Amino acid sequence: MQNVIVTIARQYGSGGREVGLRLSEKIGVKFYDKDLITMAAQKSGLSSDALQNADEKAANSLLYTLALGSSIYNHGVEHVNLPINDRLFVVQSEIIKELAGTGEGAIIVGRCADYVLAGRKNLVRVYITSDFDNRVRAVMARHELTENAARDLIVKTDKRRANYYSYYTGEKWGRADKYDLVISTDRIGVEGAADLIADYAAMIH
How far apart are the first and last CA of the chain? Predict the structure, then answer.
């Protein structure tokens, strides 16, 4: 299944990253998440720390939003004239397209990858979800947070991801019709979700 491209959008605390890692082991395709920041830093010459702070965050420039519209990537503007968040998005989008073009396949988490790679026949677009209370418990355990702190972090992170997706694509994050698979990890867990995606990818590959 070397040529399959799987993009994973995920609610915070739903286990989406873990699903991607497990899927990578199952089907032998490389997993990309934070390493896209390192690759973007190498490609752009920008500081990795600065890009880390901008990762999956929409630019705060209202003027750029008004001038360029909701989908900056499609306007072909020069990277150097953009806020760092926009420069990161453009560079990461270029890298994502390059990865998809190698023929080796890839599993990519976030970064509007489903939008960037839209139309490819070997693309599987996945959205991972989970019950809010289950996500609260997962985030509390992962980060040793109180229940209220975990709830606040989930709400803020999901809102940031939704704003990021809307800002760069002009579309709504999490809409079922934008994905091939919408999977809840509540009853089947990370392993079951990875199995479902692998089975689906095998059927269309």
Answer: 7
3-state secondary structure 101-116: CCCCCEEEECCCHHHH
For 173, what's the count of Cα atoms within 13 Å in the CB-facing half-sphere? 24
CATH code of 176's domain: 3.40.50.300
CA 107 to chain CA centroid, nearest Å: 10
Task: Tell me the C-alpha distance between 31 and 51, whole Å.
Answer: 19
> What pLDDT, in 10s, does the model give residues 66-86?
444 444 444 444 445 667 778
Task: Name, in order, each residue with C-beta under 8 angstroms of 126's C-beta and a sequence gap of 6 or more.
Answer: 6, 7, 8, 9, 19, 179, 180, 181, 182, 183, 197
Q: pLDDT of 28-66, one tens digit each? A: 999 999 888 888 878 877 667 766 776 666 665 544 444
Number of domains in the chain: 1
136, 143 Cβ separation under 8 angstroms: no
Considering only CA atoms, give the Rg of the chain: 17
Query: What region, left, alpha or beta, does residue 71 occupy, with left being phi > 0 and alpha being psi -120 to 50 degrees?
Result: beta
CA–CA gap between residue 127 and residue 132 (Å, rounded):
15
Give the distance from CA 163 to its chain's centroid.
13
Q: How far is it between the farthest Cα atoms of the chain?
A: 47
- Give the range of the structural domain holding residue 9, as residue numbers without chain letter: 5-204
